[in-house]
Amino acid sequence: MPNITALTALLNKGQDSALLRFGLASAYLKEEPDDHLIQAEEHLKRCLALDPTYTAAYQQLAQVQKDRDNLIDATETLRIGIAAAESAGDLQAKRVMQVFLKRLAKRLAADLPGQS
């Protein structure tokens, strides 16, 4: 798997693409998972701006947002991702995101009483 430096070099050469952004996010999460959530999130958002049908990016972005304790954004990302997966006929991605969304909904519901 290419590393952050190699992928960043491609980006700096102007070879921007959804695949490159997804790869960069994945490299950040693999090499420095705790320290680079913000960078991974930025690359995943750019990936989706370049290709809103990239269903794997929705799943990964929601996971990063969850890891950053941003459950509301993760929930919204999954809702958009489920719609994108449905439009693309990607039933497996849709199912995975639906399960993830249910788990997030349960966690949000459990957190509500503690916020009062």
CATH superfamily: Tetratricopeptide repeat domain
User: Any idea what the shape is?
Assistant: globular
Whole-angstrom Rg: 15 Å
CATH architecture designation:
Alpha Horseshoe
Low-confidence stretches: none
The average pLDDT is: 92
Tally the helices: 6
How many domains in all?
A: 1
Q: Note the beta-strand portion.
A: under 5%
Biggest β-sheet description: none
The ordered H/E elements are HHHHHH
**SSE-based structural type:** mainly alpha
Estimate the helix proportion, in percent.
Answer: over 70%
- Write the CATH fold name: Serine Threonine Protein Phosphatase 5, Tetratricopeptide repeat
Key phrases:
single chain, 116 residues, mainly alpha, Serine Threonine Protein Phosphatase 5, Tetratricopeptide repeat, 6 helices, 77% helix, 0% strand, globular
If you had to describe this structure to a student in words, what would you say it looks like?
- By secondary structure, this protein is mainly α.
- It has one domain (4-110): Tetratricopeptide repeat domain (Serine Threonine Protein Phosphatase 5, Tetratricopeptide repeat, Alpha Horseshoe).
- Helices cover 77% and strands 0% of the residues.
- The protein has helices at 4-12, 18-31, 37-50, 55-67, 71-88, 91-111.
- The radius of gyration is 15 Å and the shape is globular.
- The N and C termini lie far apart (46 Å).
- The model has no long low-confidence stretch (mean pLDDT 92).
